[in-house]
Design goal:
single chain, Homeodomain-like_sf, DNA binding, HTH CENPB-type domain-containing protein, Arc Repressor Mutant, subunit A, mainly alpha, about 0% strand, 3 domains
């Protein structure tokens, strides 16, 4: 059997399965609860019988724990809200560093997450799919005065929303840069 057949994605949510289990315990039939809550009948039956744990995963375990992934998602959403959406390369770099710092067994090829890992990560965390940038087009990357002013306004709004506006009055945060040093 091919690996893709072995681990077909589930089409039900844990909440649906929980409601189906509650319905069966409340004297409904397994077939009725399965149909009503869109939960696989055999899986529901096995969970009721105790053959499967109610919250078990069928797929192999993920490299990062659910808590680690939630921290990563929180970071991605925060930097995106601040106006600096991460690219997939930055995400891969961050995961590579995170796995190393947490002393996790690195099962990635070349010690780096793959596109398959990325696709699975997005499926587990769909709220970040639109926050990740793939490639910046040249037109989007071209700065104009209007885009810069808009960006500065967004940054100011973000800083105000986090109640950090006092940083504007800290003299240690004043920098001077000469454009000749940039290449």
């Amino acid at each position: 059997m091919s690996p893709n057949k072995l681990y077909q994605s589930t089409k039900y949510s844990p909440e649906d399965m929980g409601r189906a289990i509650a319905a069966v315990k409340g004297e409904k039939s397994v077939a009725f609860a399965s149909k009503q809550f869109n939960a696989p009948q055999v899986t529901l039956f096995y969970k009721i019988q105790g053959k499967y744990e109610v919250n078990c995963r069928i797929r192999p375990p993920t490299i990062l724990t659910q808590t680690d992934e939630q921290h990563l998602v929180h970071w991605l959403l925060n930097i995106s809200d601040a106006g600096f959406p991460a690219t997939t390369t930055q995400l891969f770099d961050s995961v590579q560093i995170l796995v190393k710092k947490l002393n996790k067994p690195n099962v990635f090829k070349n010690s780096r997450p793959s596109q398959k890992w990325f696709n699975s990560f997005i499926k587990r965390n769909p709220q970040i799919s639109e926050k990740l940038t793939q490639n910046l087009t040249q037109a989007r990357f071209q700065p104009t005065e209007e885009k810069i002013r808009s960006w500065l306004h967004e940054i100011r709004s973000y800083i105000d929303s986090k109640d950090l506006s006092n940083i504007f009055y800290d003299p240690r945060r004043i920098y001077d840069a000469d454009e000749t040093a940039f290449s």
